[in-house]
Design brief:
By secondary structure, the protein is α/β, with parallel strands linked by helices. It has helices at residues 21-29, 46-49, 54-71, 82-94, 116-122, 124-130, 141-146, 158-174, 196-204, 234-250; strands at 5-10, 33-35, 74-80, 99-102, 133-135, 155-157, 182-187, 210-215, 256-258. The strands form two sheets. Strands 2-1-3-4-7-8-9 form a seven-stranded parallel sheet, with helices on both faces. It has a two-stranded antiparallel ribbon with strand order 5-6.
Length: 263
């Protein structure tokens, strides 16, 4: 049959469409059109990545959204990590049929969390000129076995990270413009994206139909960030996303605030 609903799946900062692949089959089984674009500079080379910034990633996501909107009755942006932040910005701008945010940050680091990363973020406007590309330790093989990922794991591009931070500042201001149904998921121990971001989204978004789910991974090896590919959460996330999209298509309404893992 002809799909009346399209899902735009957006991957994270320095990542690739690989992060969103576990969601595809469940959505296509519903009869949805699924678009999984590669954001500019991603899944290519660090040199290409360094030529792009947050406005480029947002513009590409918006272009794909508008293209889908021209040919479908409903479009639902679904994003992981930075992709979730982009999806929320699209929701604030265009009031889609629904929006899904998975481990999406609303800031690079909360001001009250004082550690080495906080210092890096604080001095990022200066550091990005002195050390535009910084090497970082690659993930351990056992970590990637638990939470597979494909992206720029061995470097941190500070100008791009700073650009992301400025984009998140825009997101924080526009959260009250989100009025569509929303699904927000985050792990309580996420070390890469502040877990409080999910609460901030739920508190500030104007949606009267918002589902908030916190997962709790048990292992102590990974950063607990890769919700979509992690062995402990990928099936739950795929099922929740599929359930949400099916409900939005059917016109049902529900508001849930869940502080723990839902089975």
């Amino acid at each position: 049959m002809t799909a009346d609903t399209a899902c735009l799946l957006l991957h994270g900062f320095g990542g690739s469409p690989f992060e969103m692949e576990p969601l595809v089959s469940g959505l296509t089984d519903l009869g949805c059109t699924v678009d999984v674009p590669t954001l500019p500079g991603h899944d290519s080379s660090v040199a290409e990545f360094r030529r792009t910034f947050f406005p480029d990633w947002l513009a590409h996501a918006e272009e794909r959204y508008l293209s889908l909107r021209r040919s479908h009755k409903r479009v639902i942006p679904i994003g992981f990590s930075m992709g979730g932040s982009l999806a929320l910005l699209l929701a604030a701008r265009h009031n889609p049929a629904g929006v899904v945010s998975l481990a999406a940050p609303v800031c690079l680091q909360p001001w009250f969390s004082f550690n080495a990363r906080t210092l890096q973020i604080l001095f990022l406007p200066l550091l990005k000129h002195v050390f535009p590309v910084m090497s970082r330790r690659p993930p351990r093989p056992e970590s990637r076995a638990i939470a597979p990922h494909r992206g720029y794991d061995n470097v941190n591009c500070l100008p791009q990270l700073h650009s992301l931070g400025k984009g998140l500042a825009i997101l924080r201001k526009t959260l009250p413009d989100i009025r569509c149904p929303a699904l927000v998921m985050h792990d309580v121990l996420d070390a890469s994206s502040w877990p409080g971001s999910a609460l901030a989204i739920a508190a500030k978004a104007a949606s009267r139909d918002l589902t908030l789910i916190y997962t709790r991974m048990n292992e102590r090896i990974t950063s607990h960030h890769m919700l979509t590919t992690h062995q402990e959460t990928k099936e739950q996330v795929a099922a929740e996303v599929r359930r949400f999209v099916a409900r939005v298509r059917g016109g049902g309404k529900r508001r849930i605030a869940s502080g723990g893992q839902r089975g």
